[in-house]
Amino acid sequence: MFFIYIFSFGVVFSQNHVPVKHALVVAISEYSPSSGFRHIDADNDLKIIMKLLKQQGFTDTIILTNARATKEGFIEAYRKLRSNIQPGDIIYIHFSTHGQQIQDLGGDEIDGLDEAIALYDSQSRGSNEYRGQNHLTDDEFGEMIEQLRKSLGKQGDILVMIDACHSGSMSRGLDTVIIRGGYPPITIPGQDSIVRTRGSNDAIRSAEGSKSVGMFSNLNHNKRDDLANYVIISACENSEISSEFYYNHNYFGPLTWAFLTALLNNSSENYTYNKLFHDIQYEMISMFENYKTKQNPTIESAETGGTDKVIFGGKSIKQQNFYTISRFIKPDQIIIDGGNISGIFDSTTVTVYPSGTADPGKAGTPLAIGKIIQSGYMESTVQLQSLLNDKKPGDYWIFINDRRLGGYKVTLGLGTFTDAKFKKQAIGVIQGCSYAEITTDSPAFILEQKKSNAPEMDLVQSRSRKISRDNITVDNLGKTLLNLAQVQFMKSLKVTSQGIELDVALVPSDSLHNPKSKFTDSRTLRPTVKEGVDTAILWIANTGKKSFYFNLLDIDPEDRINVVFPSDERPVSDCYLQPGQKFPTRYTFYKPYGTETLKIIASDKKFDLRPVINSMSQTRGIMGEMEKLFSSAYNMRGSPSLPESTGLATFNFVFDIIK
Q1: For the chain, what percentages of helix, strand and coil (3-state, to nearest 5) are there?
Q2: What value, to the nearest 5°, has the Cα angle with vertex 80 and ends 76 and 84?
Q3: Which of 232-241, 422-431, 638-647 shows the highest mean pLDDT?
Q4: For the domain with range 410-491, which CATH number is right: 3.40.630, 3.30.300, 3.40.50, 1.10.3470?
Q5: Which of 13, 216, 361, 526 has a CA-to-CA distance to 291 between 20 and 30 Å?
Q6: What is the pLDDT of residues 311-368, one digit of tens each?
Q7: Calpha distance 400→393 (Å, rounded)
Q8: How many Cβ atoms are within 10 Å of 267's Cβ, its own excluded?
Q9: Residue 120 in contact with residue 28, Cβ under 8 Å?
Q10: Do domains 21-308 and 325-402 have the same CATH topology?
Q11: In the chain, % of residues over pLDDT 90
């Protein structure tokens, strides 16, 4: 029995409309005897969820359990839910079920597999009679979510919890006999998936940050501002198996239990989806710390900043970037998950606040102040001025207070300044930056005042005399130089790893019809493309013996860096190549003219550099192993390097863009 008191979250948008909270809960413990799906303890999850919904003020709840949770039953329940909602309402959808992958015949999935929820009348194996028609696929669910978003309007809110998994591998040792998912993908006899290669969408020179992907990571992210936001939290990444959690002689879905614990321990009116997910992460880390199996919950949102909102329809609270504590050494010494590429070096000072703090500048006195005493490849050590008596890492967030950056430096020469006072101010900023220095010996860039004599500067590449950064003020000069230092570091990063090998080719789009078509310039012998004219296919091929994940970075002639893949349309799980497999993508070329570098970073571990590259200063929340590695990967004595043991390799592909 559970005795729960939880602060109810929500908001009234106007005097004329009080948002109604609706819920649709699917909990299947016993599947159809002929389905092939084993028992799970979704009935225990249902008890928890119903108590939570009651405490949170949900008044319209539809429950589907066991035989009621058929495909037809779910569609009917969805239609009823949609007919009951009004603009500005709040929706919670919960799945405690098995999950599975189904062969994709529509061609929209890179790996040829749709992610799906197994409903009561689903079958665990495909046949001539069963082609997955009673599963709920990500495509179908995505369409439903889009319809709800339109009906709710921009003031509405949707939270989806998926306590299931769809991993097709059960080869590793398991700690419990109750697994949610773990069944092989459903394949359809006599049918081939449309997609055999990975990739196919247009590549662009911009990308937005995101988290690791979960079960419905490929939903249509329609970002119109007249649609409701949605947040989806999944129990594990789409390559993992979800084990049930054992507590007090009962089994529970791990995400459901973590959701319960998170809400029980928080009563703040400003409890955001960011903080909720953080608490779920740490609860699940604690939950499985003695298990052989590990699983990592995931979160996604329909809109940038969508996770900054107070849960269940609340206001948006902008979250400042933060780091987390990996572990305690002692009460006044901690290890944090940050690193050099995001601006953490020796002598950087930090402040410690309770987790959930949105803006340390408005949060009053910190719990502690500290200084980085050692920044290594994987982690940084902080010496605190006072003790943190509570040794639970999840209770704290770390914010940068005063940045000190070492390692790779940008070399600058000083050009023409008509205002002596302005020049002196600029020199003062540079001298205060550990990541930049003034020199007369072959500087990489020239800093000069704009010809208009305005109090602004241009940063010019020394050799080409092209403007790399313009309209720089004294206030943003330090941040501009930090960005350049990080880009130069990434361009210079060279790593090899035995077994990870790839080939990169840039071929004209019409090369299949015209074999003689090519981009190679006879003078430079480099691939050369025309801006606004040429369209190419970029091929990344795994020619080695190891499978690997990859990130594709684009560094343009003005030293601006973007993550091309992964992207919103092609998540991390799509950026994966087995030996002999190819990833093609269409590439279109734009200004600026000059030499462009595509950098492919490959690893045997899943990673996503968007939080690192796109912020270029700090990272948000818990980072994966590879992100942590890159966030502290400057070599202080020479060119950037990483240890061979990381299972990491980098590859550069250089080409020219001309008019």
Answers
A1: 20, 30, 50
A2: 170
A3: 422-431
A4: 3.40.50
A5: 216
A6: 998 888 888 888 889 889 999 999 887 765 455 777 889 999 999 898 998 999 999 9
A7: 17
A8: 12
A9: yes
A10: no
A11: 38
Give the C-alpha separation, 571 to 562, whole Å. 15
Q: Collect all residues with Cβ–Cβ distance below 8 Å to 91 and sequence separation of at least 6.
A: 21, 22, 23, 24, 81, 85, 148, 152, 156, 157, 158, 159
DSSP, collapsed to helix, strand or coil, labels residue 135 as strand
The hierarchical CATH code for the domain 495-658 is 2.60.40.2550
Q: Select the CATH number that applies to the domain covering 21-308 from these four: 3.40.50.1460, 3.40.50.1400, 3.30.70.1620, 3.40.50.300.
A: 3.40.50.1460
Q: Distance (Å, rounded) from C-alpha 315 to C-alpha 10?
A: 9
- CA contacts within 13 A on the Cβ side of 337: 22
DSSP letter at 520 equals: B
Taking the domains of the chain in order of start, what are their residue ranges? Answer: 21-308, 325-402, 410-491, 495-658
**pLDDT of residue 220 exceeding 90:** no
Residue 226 burial (CB count, 10 A): 9
Give the CATH fold of the 325-402 domain. Thrombin, subunit H (2.40.10)
- Looking at mean pLDDT, say which of 209-223, 241-255, 478-492 comes out highest: 241-255
Count CB-CB contacts under 10 A for residue 190.
6
* pLDDT tier for residue 180 given thresholds of 50, 70 and 90: low
| C-alpha triplet 353, 359, 362: angle, nearest 5° | 90
Q: How far apart are CA 223 and CA 106, in angstroms?
A: 24
Q: Do residues 469 and 485 lie in contact, with contact meaning Cβ atoms separated by under 8 Å? A: no
The pLDDT tens digits for 411-468 are: 999 999 999 999 999 999 999 887 889 999 999 999 999 988 889 999 998 988 888 8
Task: Give the DSSP H/E element, type plus range, for residue 330.
Answer: strand 325-330
CB neighbours (10 Å) of residue 301? 20
Is the pLDDT at 618 greater than 60, yes or no? no
